[in-house]
Amino acid sequence: MPLPWEIESVIQHSQRLLNSFQHYLGRPLLPELGGESLDSHDAKSQAQRLFEAPIIIVSHGTQADPIFNYGNAKALDLWALSWADFTRLPSRQSAQAPEQPERAEMLAQAKAQGYFEGYVGDRATSHGQRFRMEDGIIWSVVDATSNNCGQAATFSRYHFL
Predict the structure, then answer these.
(1) Is residue 32's pLDDT more than 80?
(2) Whether the Cβ atoms of residue 68 and residue 60 lie closer than 8 Å to each other
């Protein structure tokens, strides 16, 4: 079975994540990739670097109740889920009920302006262990023709509660 970053649809989605972050925030999601335009000749290695990045990166689609469609290795480890289980999880379930209104407001703000920086929020692993993420960035994910593909988030700082 291939690793997630070896799957063509994940390679393409990885490009959308990287390009959308660069577009909305004006800087690369992964500094080692630089600010140059990302092209397909190196897409697989970029997808691998995104998946293996030392920061947490997740995204969800555009469904009425959005489902996670990406989680890199750090995210899968944090939530204690396999790729298959993570990519079936409604993203709202990453936050417990008391945090869901704040999460929804932050996602709406990010959607309205294309991104939101400095988010702090509480989440829970698949085992119910709560953690607080800090300095989160949420951004809209679009394709090459600016069609909405969902939203993504990244953070590197968190601690268990």
Answers:
(1) no
(2) yes
What's the per-residue H, E or C state across the chain?
CCCHHHCHHHHHHHHHHHHHHHHHHCCCCCHHHCCCCCCHHHHHHHHHHHHCCCCEEEEECCCCCCEEEEECHHHHHHHCCCHHHHCCCEHHHHCCHHHHHHHHHHHHHHHHHCEEEEEEEEEECCCCCEEEEEEEEEEEEECCCCCEEEEEEEECEEEEC
- Which of 141, 138, 95, 140 has its CA nearest to residue 117? 138
Tens-place pLDDT, residues 64-76: 999 999 999 999 9
pLDDT value for 108:
87
Query: Is 116 exposed, middle or buried (CB count within 10 Å of its CB: 0-12, 13-18, 19+)?
Result: buried
The reported pTM is 0.91
**Mean local confidence (pLDDT), 26-49:** 76
Average pLDDT, stretch 43-63? 95
Q: How many domains does the chain have?
A: 1
Q: Is pLDDT above 70 for 41?
A: no
Domain that holds residue 69: 4-160
Q: What is the CATH number of the domain that holds 119?
A: 3.30.450.20
